[in-house]
Structures are given as C-alpha cells and as structure tokens.
Design brief:
heterodimer; A: 402 residues; alpha/beta; 6-stranded mixed sheet; 4-stranded parallel sheet; 16 helices; B: 277 residues; TIM Barrel; 8-stranded parallel β-barrel
Chain lengths: 402, 277
Amino acid sequence: MAARPVMPDELGHFGIFGGRYVSETLMPAILQLEKAYLEIKDDPEFTKELEYYLKEYVGRPTPLYFAERMTKDLGGAKIYLKREDLAHTGAHKINNTIGQALLASRMGKKRVIAETGAGQHGVATATVAALLDMECEIFMGLEDTRRQALNVTRMKLLGATVREVTQGTQTLKDAMNEAMRDWITNVRNTFYIIGSVAGPHPYPMMVRDFQSVIGREAREQILEKEKRLPDLLIACVGGGSNAMGLFYPFLGDETVKMTGVEAAGSGIESGHHAATLSSGTVGVLHGSKTYLLQDENGQVLGTHSIAPGLDYPGVGPEHSYLSDMGRVSYKNVTDSEALEGFKYLSQVEGIIPALESAHAVAYTRKAAPGMPRDSVIIICLSGRGDKDINAVSDILVKGLKQ
Amino acid sequence: MSRIADKFKELKKKNRIALVNYVTAGDPSPELTADLVLKLVDSGADIIELGVPFSDPMADGPAIQLASERALKKGTTLGKVLDIVKRIREKSEVPIIMFGYYNPFFKYGLERFSKDAADAGADGVLVVDLPPEEAGEFKVHLDGAGLDLIFLLAPTSTGERISLVTKNASGFVYLVSVTGITGVRPDMDFSLEDLTSEIRHSTKLPVGVGFGISSPEQVSRIAGYADAVIVGSAIVRIIEKHGENKEELFDELSGFVSGLSRACGIKGERSLSRADR
C-alpha cells in the first residue's frame, strides 16, 4: 500500500482547506477538544470501549452485501452494498455520535447538542445521549421537521428536546448556525456533536476517523469475498461523512477509484441544487475553508435537494482537498434520478434506501453498465428509507418540486 | 498615528472612555446609513463599527441577524459598504471599523479589500470568525494598507489565548462581555475588572467591552475599568422599530446615544490614576 499524506496538518488544514474559523469565545473549547481527542485517539482503553459499543450496541460489523439482482440487471460491474442502513438507528451517523459522546463523557460534559438535516444525525445523537445519560438538544430547520416528521418523533421519544429553527432557509445550514450559537453560549458545559466531516478543526478529522470504520470493514470484507480490492467506491456527499468514512481507508490504494455523488436537485442549471463541488467556489462557512455555494459577494446561497441530509451549501474540507487533488471524482444526480434510484433498489433488492443514499444508487445505475463484469463496485448504503416514506408518497402523488 | 489611536489619546485627556456604536450597514437602507452614522457621531459616538451584512451571522443574536437580513434584501454588498464609508469620511473624521464575518472579505479579495478600504477612509477591521491562527494573510495586507486588525477576547479566554491575541492585535482589544452571542442583556452586571487587568498585563492597547450593553448605568459601570464600551444590538433594535421613518428614527437614536455618551466620563480614583499613566 502506498504511503498516504498525513492530513490534516497540526492546524487542521487539508492543503488550503479546513482550519479553524470560529469566534474567540469558542477557540479555547476547540483547542481543548483537539487535545482531548488526540489523547484518546490511540488510547487502548478508549478504543476497547468504542469497539464494545460498536459491536454490541450498534451491531457492527455491518454486512457487505452482494447485490446480485442489481448486478445482473445492470449487466456490468459486480455491485456490493455496504449496509450502514442496518446499523442501530438506521444510518451510519451513530458510528460518529457514539465516538463523540464517549469523548464528551470523558471530558465531563453533561449536555450534548447537534444539528440535523434529515434527522438521522439528530436521532443518532439523541440515542447515545439516552445511552450515556446526557441532556440533549437537537437543532433542526422548520422545513426539515416537516419533511422528516418521523425522525422528530423518534428524537422526542429518546428524550431529546428538538429546537425548530425558523431563521434563514430553515434547513441544515441554519440548524448548524443555531447550534453554533447555542455552543457559544453554553460552551462551558456543552459538547457539540457535529454530524459531518465539516466544521472547525478537529471535527473534520475526528468525524472522519470515527466513520472510517465503514471503510476498514469494507476493505477487509471485500478482500475476503473477492480476494481483491474494489475498482470503484460510490457514496453520496452532503457534508460528506459516509463518503469520507468509506473512502479514507482506501486512499492509499491507487487502483481504487472513488466517486462522491452530490445532489443536483432540480438540475445544476436550474440553480436549485446542493452540488457544492460541481459548481461551488472556495469560501469559509461554519468554521472551515472549503468549496461553498455562494454568490459573487460571498453570501451563502440557499440550496435544494429532495434529500434533507444533502441539502447543505458547503462540504467537508477534506473532500475539497481530494477533489482538487483529483483523487476523488465528484458527480451529481437530480431529485428525479434519486427518486428512481429509491424505487429501483426497493424493487430490485428489497432494500428501501434513504433518499440521500438513493443518490449513490442512482449514480451506480449510470456507472456500472459500462464497466467490465469482473470489476467490483462498493456503494455505501448510508441509511434506510423509512424516514422518507411519507415525503416520497407525497411526491408520488403531487410530483416533484421544480 | 491612526484615527483610532488619536481618538483614544484625545479621550484620555478628556477623562472619558470611548463610546463605540455599531450599526449594520444597509439597514434600514444603504442610502440612509451614512446620514445615520453622522447622526450617531453628532449625538456622541466616538468610534463607529460598521457591520458588513452576512447570510450566516453565527455569533449574532436575533437583533443583528434580522438587521443583516434586511440589509441583504436591500442589496448591500461589501462594495456598497465601502461606498458608505466614503460618504461618511467626506463629512467626518470619526474612526470607522468594518465589522463582519470572513467570507465576504475573502471573496472580495483580501489584498484588494485592504487597499479599497484604506482608500475609502476606513481605519480598522474586525472579523468575528477569524482568530489569529487564520489571520496571517489578511493581516499582511491590512498592515500594508495601514489598517488596524482588531481581535476579540472572551470570558473563556485562557492566559495563552490572551497573549496570542494581544501579540497580533492592533487598534484596541475587544473584550466580549459574556460567553454568548450578541444581544441586549438588561440584567448583566459586567464584572470584568479582573479579566481586563489580566489583558492589560499583556498589552498597552486600549480595552473595549462589548455585547449586551444597552443602558447608561451599564456604560458607567464599564467606565470604571475599561477604555471603550461598544453598544450594538440596542441601536439596531431602534432601527428595526422605526425602519426608514427617518425623523423618528434619528430623534430616538440621538436621545439614546447622548444618554450613553453622558455616562462615558471617568470618575473618582480611576480618573486620577489614569491621568498619570
């Protein structure tokens, strides 16, 4: 395996991206968090505790499932699904929340907060807060509380307070603004569990490390099943945590190509989308320098995607770096393609994917047929689609929003 | 010497602290901001913080969030804020600090901005989400253009942070009074004497206290230990109340700011010891 560059540097930079763009009030907390994380990162006792919960509570390792009917139907590469939808709470998000909550608990923090878009990260945070007996508050855009009502109920059942965010576009970006404001105010007793590989250093690194369990398992599993490395990895990218988790352990494997799939919403040319790496420019939001959907005056643009978890104008800084390096290629699929992918996987494999993950499925339908039959694709099936059933049945009746 | 340093020197002779007033540029409208600022100066404001509106003001409470939204709806860009600075500078020598979030400055171009801001007549810049660790490049260009880069310190700041920030700061040091976001806090007691004197051990720069301040009593309390007091959200709320109703807006602002200004005098022992410094 080729040596891979150590990223980020000690100030949290991935090339020109990343860093710590936060107000001074938060700097001491972020430095303290970085120190605490670096201490536990390679601490055998912490690792043992984390592994215990990942196995016994989350249900890891998740299967790497050979999607035989899909493979036959598309007639090209062999397709494997990394089944993060089978993890406890129904998505990959819990890999990270369990790690951060254990860290919070070591740091003596009694209260955790989180932002959420699709509600999966909110549910995963509320879950670990219940598990570890912590007070929990979740920030969610009003628009998202409507389209992901099931997850709002789940969070409340788990004992969390859900704060509806009515500012701005009322989606993930504004939920994150509001969570940051809460953190600035309650930083002394509160741990902010960021759900993506975004935010100020050390979050992009820390979330990547916790999510890397996806790629580590997938690498081992594919070597066992196919006796070889995959040719292509495919994952959806909003902030990009499931993609980073799958990709990271393969970055040194030069033969393994990787594609991140962003949300093209109603189409890139329509302006209603969330495809940051396809059409964004470099800027600073939520604590890090990264590609951003913004206007020529540096104001952050509203985004649109059928998948609330992808409905975000930024992207994790390491993705920006990998994109500029050319190591990962970033494509996009529209709402209607994603919706087709949602139905397709349900009917061909009996697996209802989250709308976010359906973007990866939709892209695979384009990529796989042109690949040789002995080639191998791994899709990160980042979450299950139960949360989307109501929204999708609405859309099937009323049609897509243009 | 910069207008900011001159102003602090002048006020010291008068035994007063500086009254710094914040307004979001472009609220209620880009056309009205310059006149509004001149009105604040007439009423007793010593230094102006001109807010550059941003779509995602993460360190601001509801008052300034809404002001930002109103200003953006009126088409306020960083270029237009520079025009406003120019218009103020034609009529007044009041020190002007441009206050905002990093992205609009970054997008404008740090070198180009520094030059244009100096040409327009600005004196300093304060970027809420730009700690010294990330400020290197901007600082080089601002230094080159002769502009101050003002940094924040907070109640959470450790000794290490205080020495790093003061080493990089120019103009003055902005001490955030609360662990929190901007917004009026009528019941705050502002006991920041210890933190202020800790900061004074690391720097000779003036120390200003801001966030939450809205009454002459609070200003008077802060005049007991700091060099400047910053009042923002309370002014923004008056603007929100009257909108473009210029006469009523200017009347209320004028009364409010002169009340704060009257509380900026330094009394008692501190005034005596200060005269010797």
